[in-house]
């Protein structure tokens, strides 16, 4: 009794050929979802580094504004209003300069907190980083000196890196 051809369903079982059959399934995340992202993508990590670069720049601005406010207060009380170096400084009141000190310090703290939240933050951190980057870029346009240009570039890069596909995937990932 012959079993016939290779396609005979009653014939002897043949071994599986390599490459045939069902492919292996990708690793599953919690509750059968997509796999959990465990490492931060490079562009998101770069955005986080740029936030950390803004922190010392802001602290240098705090020191500069505080120094200028101190010089302005000292020279105005000494009656040196006719000095050439004082001409540019007398456009600002000491109160306005101290307000700039407080704002620059608050912006540095905000950048540091935002950078710390990149590793475990959700979609709100991504949106906040995008808004932070846009506002930083707009504030850097006004003086547009070297520091202003640097703030503008860093702000744009932070907004782009937090808002691209890698940033969206990182901040919207499933948490364990």
UniProtKB/TrEMBL annotation:
<feature type="transmembrane region" description="Helical">
    <location>
        <begin position="127"/>
        <end position="145"/>
    </location>
</feature>
<keyword id="KW-0472">Membrane</keyword>
<protein>
    <recommendedName>
        <fullName>Integral membrane protein</fullName>
    </recommendedName>
</protein>
<feature type="region of interest" description="Disordered">
    <location>
        <begin position="1"/>
        <end position="22"/>
    </location>
</feature>
<feature type="transmembrane region" description="Helical">
    <location>
        <begin position="49"/>
        <end position="72"/>
    </location>
</feature>
<keyword id="KW-0812">Transmembrane</keyword>
<keyword id="KW-1133">Transmembrane helix</keyword>
<feature type="transmembrane region" description="Helical">
    <location>
        <begin position="92"/>
        <end position="115"/>
    </location>
</feature>
